[in-house]
Design goal:
Elements: E1 3-10, H1 18-26, E2 31-34, H2 41-51, H3 61-75, E3 78-81, H4 88-102, E4 108-114, H5 119-125, E5 143-148, H6 152-159, E6 165-168, H7 173-185, H8 192-205, E7 233-238, E8 243-247, H9 257-265, E9 274-275, E10 280-282, E11 287-292, E12 295-299, E13 302-304, E14 309-329, H10 333-350, E15 359-364, E16 386-395, H11 398-409, H12 411-414, E17 419-438, E18 445-451
Parallel strand pairs: 1-2, 2-3, 3-6, 4-6
Antiparallel strand pairs: 1-7, 4-18, 5-14, 7-8, 8-12, 9-10, 10-13, 11-12, 14-16, 14-17, 15-16
Length: 453
């Protein structure tokens, strides 16, 4: 029975690169998948694209592909990624430029998939926003982005062009893995049983190091060896949808039944009905069986009909986050930090016109992660030798956000005594919401280009 090996090269935009290189070099892969998008990253990409038409793709995409390309070309491994983010065509241009500079010894074909950017359609149709049940037009903030979660069918169309690299925008995470299975095995878009099995494999792999113990690791009850050299997983998938997930024995980390169980439940609200653009997957009867060192067989996944609508991730301009931090150490560190926070809040109100309840004051080291919870403060008779003050807020203008950073920094000489290590940031806030759009309203296109040596 025909079988392919699909490897996870990244699980999010800021993921490590060296585990992907290890997989590309030693993993005997047919496909290497870079999953690089979260709910906010494509909207953030649209903000960057607005400032520079040549930007908007995953900032690490060129580095990722550059690190593995010699290995993937030598082994015939196809790269598939949604790292095109808000600008797949610009991403393809940037990768092509990198390849030309490398001076590779054979042509490289790149396929870019566009069409997930549906902002104009959303403005025209004006659907209801899920979170508010009001039309998009009713939201006073600017619509920065609207990207539909496209499925495996759009990626299969790209794979039919025999590319070395496929670069898409907001392709759904498991669809990146399902597409090679459909392409290689000739699965029908109506065979929900097979699509459900393939989606389960994609869901297990999509977060890369989470499956091999990264997020599983909790010292003592759940130890994982070699975390500093954590390896990424792969799956051997057969034409009947059966699969064995594994990792390279030379790599660090752990892949067993327990890590698989945790990853299966990750971000799944209903195991009976996990909705993707390709199928409504059913994970309720999935079973994991150890079949060898670092090898686990996956069985029992299924599926029902695919949804008629696609989810659209909406990004709205949501103001500006201003943040300032300052450390206090030694006797009465907590008292001085608390007073410093009060001073900043008062000045933000009286000098900059910012309501006090718009700001959050945290004393990091006194239970700030659990502020408001019973007992969060801890034992009152413990002397705390060092405190980090953090004042932050989401504000209406950049100037107000800058003022937060500035007012904290001014504590250096304006008291209380002993503050140091001031840091501050100002960032534009992108508020993420969601809507539905008919599948027929989303039309994707494959753009191919060949980079000559």
């Amino acid at each position: 029975m025909k079988q392919i090996r699909v490897g996870a090269g990244a699980g999010f935009a800021g993921d490590r690169i060296d585990p992907a290189v290890e997989l590309a070099q030693y993993g005997d892969l047919d496909y290497l998948i870079f999953e690089c998008l979260g709910e906010r990253t494509v909207a953030a990409g649209q903000v960057r694209r607005r400032e520079d038409p040549r930007a908007g793709y995953d900032p690490l995409l060129v580095a990722r592909i550059g690190a593995v390309i010699e290995h993937t070309l030598a082994t015939g491994t196809t790269i598939v990624t949604n790292g095109g983010s808000a600008n797949p065509l610009a991403a393809a241009d940037a990768v092509a430029e990198m390849l030309r500079e490398r001076g590779l010894d054979r042509p490289v074909r790149i396929a870019a998939v566009t069409g997930d950017d549906v902002a104009d359609t959303i403005r025209a149709i004006d659907p209801l926003v899920w979170e508010t049940q009001e039309p998009v037009s009713a939201h006073g903030t600017d619509l920065l982005s609207a990207n539909a979660y496209i499925g495996a069918d759009s990626l299969v169309a790209a794979l039919e062009q025999d590319p070395d690299i496929v670069i898409a925008g907001r392709a759904a995470d498991p669809s990146l893995y399902l597409a090679p299975m459909i392409h290689e095995f000739g699965w029908s878009s109506t065979d929900v049983e097979l699509l459900g099995k393939g989606t389960c494999v994609g869901h297990l792999l999509e977060c890369a190091g989470q499956l091999t113990g990264g997020y599983f690791f909790d010292p003592g009850p759940k130890d994982v060896p070699g975390l500093a050299r954590l390896g990424f997983p792969f799956a051997d998938v057969s034409a009947d949808g059966s699969a064995v997930v594994g990792k390279l024995e030379r790599s660090g980390g752990l892949l067993d039944v327990r890590t698989c169980r945790e990853q299966l439940l990750y971000e799944v609200h209903d195991p009976h009905g996990y909705i993707t653009p390709d199928v409504t997957a059913d994970f309720s009867r999935v079973e994991f069986t150890t079949v060898g060192p670092e090898r686990v067989r996956v069985t029992g996944a299924s599926g029902t009909q695919r949804p008629t609508d696609l989810k659209v991730s909406l990004g709205f301009q949501g103001g500006w986050t201003g943040e300032g931090q300052m450390s206090y150490a030694g006797p009465r560190a907590e008292e001085r930090a608390r007073l410093a926070g009060d001073v900043v809040v008062e000045r933000m109100h009286t000098v900059h016109g910012v309501p006090s309840d718009s700001l959050t004051v945290e004393l990091i080291g006194t239970g700030s992660a659990f502020r408001g919870a019973p007992g969060a403060r801890g034992s009152e008779d413990i002397t705390i030798p060092e405190i980090r003050l953090r004042v932050s807020g989401v504000l209406g203008t950049r100037a107000q956000a800058e003022a937060v950073r500035w007012e904290v920094e001014s504590l250096y000489t304006n008291g209380p005594a002993g503050g140091g290590g001031a840091r501050g940031t100002v960032t534009e806030v992108v508020a993420i919401r969601a809507a539905s759009l008919s599948r027929e309203a989303v039309e994707t296109t494959v753009h191919t280009r060949e980079v000559q040596p």
